[in-house]
Amino acid sequence: MHPMLNIAVRAARSAGTVISRAFEQQDRIEVNTKGTHDFVTNIDNNAEQAIIDTIKKSYPKHTIISEECGEIKGEDNDYQWVIDPLDGTTNFVKGIPHFCVSIALKVKGKLDQAVIYDPMRGELFTASRGKGAQLNGFRIRVKQHKELDGTILATGFPFKQKQHTDAYMNMFKTLFMKTADMRRAGSAALDLAYVAAGRVDGFFELGLKPWDTAAGELLVIEAGGLVTDLSGGHNHIASGNIVAASARLLKEIVQDIRPHLTHNLK
Ligand code: IPD
Ligand code: CA
Ligand code: CA
């Protein structure tokens, strides 16, 4: 295992321990609201601290970009860790056991290492650039569907940007009519990991942040899939609007989404 992936795994597991212990003692979770329908808990912060401590111990000069504490600029900006300490906070707060820790390392702007860890199921998704993607050490691959018929797509609703509801629902309807079914499980990072593992056939969502998608993007690519914005282009990090699937299926999804793109989503 690449030494930096090894550190990412150590960091994800220690955050996972913080999260799963807290999940058993719901009364100790302190919930705050940081934006519209956007929760943060003391556990998001504790898990984040566990990750940062682990990374800083081995790589004190690297830059860290993490959801709750923002950017901690290091002396060496070539190495950037992009962290979501708890993806699926709403599930966590509601007692739904579906959430994860997401950690990616970018080297000179390119995704290089990725870990997504589901502490409730003990599932560790990992990827290293050029080396494929694994679930608990076993190789995973994106399902190579050629058409939407019979597929399951994961998605997330635009609950923080309800101005996009009509556009989103139109996309959803067009795709839903062609697929077997849809899933809205509540963790974008796990949605991407599940695309990589072939558990779902594709994923689309609007308005995500870099820490929601960084690790999942490398997992999907290393598992033989593609990640783009809603037009099939490369603007998904800046826009936060993302599609992931096999190349053939992604082409179909993008074609179906295109007629519903409003000016702000193009
Ligand atoms: C959220 C989850 C959710 C997605 C939201 C994200 P958080 O992340 O990934 O599935 O629909 O847009 O913000 O806030 O739980 O880290
Ligand atoms: Ca997130
Ligand atoms: Ca989060």
Question: Key features?
Answer:
globular, binds D-MYO-inositol-1-phosphate, 266 residues, Fructose-1,6-Bisphosphatase, Chain A, domain 1, eight-stranded mixed sheet, binds calcium ion, five-stranded mixed sheet, 15 strands, 8 helices, 2 domains, single chain
Explain what the structure shows:
With 266 residues, the protein is an alpha+beta fold. The chain folds into two domains: 3-139, Fructose-1,6-Bisphosphatase, Chain A, domain 1 (2-Layer Sandwich), CATH 3.30.540.10; 152-260, D-Maltodextrin-Binding Protein, domain 2, CATH 3.40.190.80. Helices cover 36% and strands 29% of the residues. The protein contains eight helices and 15 strands. It has helices spanning 3-24, 42-58, 89-94, 165-178, 188-196, 210-222, 236-239, 247-257; strands at 31-35, 38-41, 62-66, 70-72, 76-87, 100-107, 110-118, 123-128, 133-135, 138-140, 152-155, 181-183, 202-205, 226-228, 242-245. A hairpin with a 4-residue loop joins strand 7 (110-118) and strand 8. The chain is globular, with a radius of gyration of 18 Å. It starts with a helix and ends in a 9-residue tail after the last helix. The mean pLDDT is 96.
Sum this structure up briefly:
By secondary structure, the protein is of the alpha+beta class. Helix content is 36%, strand content 29%. Helix 1 (3-24) packs antiparallel against helix 2 and helix 5 (188-196) packs parallel to helix 6.
